[in-house]
Amino acid sequence: MHRIAALPGDGIGPEIMTAARELLHHLGGFEVEEHLVGGASIDVHGTALTPEVLAACRDSDAVLLAAVGGPRWDTTDPDAPRPEQGLLALRKELGLFANLRPVRPSAALLDASPLRRERIEGTDMLVVRELTGGIYFGDRGRTAEAAFDTCSYERGEVERIAEIAFRFARRRVTSVDKANVLETSRLWRETVTRVGERHPDTELEHVLVDNAAMQLVSRPAAFDVILTENLFGDILSDEAAMLTGSIGMLPSASVGSDGPGLFEPVHGSAPDIAGTGQANPLAMFGSVAMMLSYGLGRDRQAAAIESAVDRALEEGLRTPDLGGAATTEEATRAVLANL
Q1: Which of 238, 258, 272, 299 is catalytic?
Q2: Rounded to whole angstroms, how far apart are CA atoms 282 and 305?
Q3: Are 283 and 267 in contact (CB under 8 A)?
């Protein structure tokens, strides 16, 4: 029996978490306990993540999060709690330094992509983004006439994320940097090259970030694993997400060296459709599949979920974001019927 800490969060989060719990119940072998996080936690506790919820997540085998945030909690007060602080705190406290985003457009949705079918056909990549270093976590400051943000990396931080990339690569790791300009990128390239020498059966190529952005839209099927630092990964993973035609289709995972991983859909809380029954649960189902595969070692069940989603789409399942009218409940039933 695996213990899952479920964090429904805000907006459409509770609706797609209900769908995910139905899926887990159908599979069997899970003990699921729900906790507040994000704006929902701010409303009750005044903070986006309480020590009690953090402890429950630490004690679980995996953490499944739906979505956090919304305009209700937007504020210009720098001291006011924000829903996103709960997610950032979870990543930090659980030691989750690697974000994994698979991009595999469903055959049934190839024509939904902004790119031509023949350009994205066969795309099956994994973006591995360093999550706890770089410019987002460096020193910053501002004067009346200037501002600065510092990007820094230590060799050990680069080594551990590179090892993750090589672990999941099937044929090639494409390491993305800006080594023609940035000193941090030169350290990144040197370190990744050394890690690559420990994996002689996997090809390693270095690509500048601007070139990588271009190749993502010109020949996405050529990529296997894309490895990159925090800022570049933030941008490139969203660009890659749109290859599928809907950001509502993509799951993600945040993992570390040990302890539970965090699994969540890429999309946000979509407060404009919350409570209407229109939320697409398929990215949440993909996150459950990633939890089973990357977090719990239940690869066969993960593959079964992915196949069930593909078959449901082939049979015509389309939620509003995909141009159809299927409700969250109808989408859930369609996937379970194919499981």
Answers
A1: 238
A2: 10
A3: yes
**Distance in angstroms (rounded) separating the CA atoms of residues 199 and 217:** 28
Active-site option among 136, 201, 224, 310: 136
Interatomic CA distance for residues 291 and 63, integer angstroms: 8
Q: What is the pLDDT of residue 92?
A: 87
Active-site residue among 59, 210, 272, 299?
A: 210
β-sheet bridge partners, residue 65? 7
Whether 238 is catalytic is: yes
Catalytic residue among 178, 294, 299, 310: 178
pLDDT of residue 58: 96
Closest listed residue to residue 87, CA positions, set 10, 184, 180, 202: 10
Residue 234 annotated as catalytic: yes
CATH of the domain at 57: 3.40.718.10
Tens digit of pLDDT for each residue in 25-72? 999 999 999 999 999 999 999 999 999 999 999 999 999 999 999 999
Identify whether residues 125 and 228 lie together within a single domain: yes
> Is 109 contained in some domain?
no
Average pLDDT, the chain: 94
176, two tokens: 């993305």
Q: Mean pLDDT across the stretch 101-124?
A: 85
Domain that holds residue 196: 114-244
For 336: left if phi > 0, alpha if psi spans -120 to 50, otherwise beta; the answer is alpha
Residue 7, strand partner residues: 65
Q: What is the mean pLDDT of residues 12-20?
A: 97
Q: Which of 234, 272, 294, 299 is catalytic?
A: 234
CB contact at 8 A, 200 and 172: no
Count how many domains the chain has: 2
Catalytic residue status for 210: yes
Query: Model confidence at 246, in pLDDT bands (50, 70, 90)?
Result: low
